[in-house]
Amino acid sequence: MTAGIARGDADDPYSGEEYDFLPLRLPRDVSRVTAAMRLAIEAEFGGWELSRVRLYTDGSRRVLLRRRRTKTSGLLPPDATKGL
């Protein structure tokens, strides 16, 4: 038996049952300041918080944002936000 938290545990914050996730890929030409501003905007207006950041050797970043799932999450049809 291995140590650690098994996926799907009620105590696991990354189980996906309580959170919506938003993966972002930031190219290497995006500066730290620009990346921080973009993430701050997502946090301020979208209610997202930083979950993980992975920096690759080529300089690009993979960012995973999360927010607590609410009763109203996913109620809009997929095309409701087109053109925004």
TrEMBL record:
Superkingdom in the source lineage: Bacteria
InterPro entries: DUF5703
Protein's UniProt name: Dihydroorotate dehydrogenase
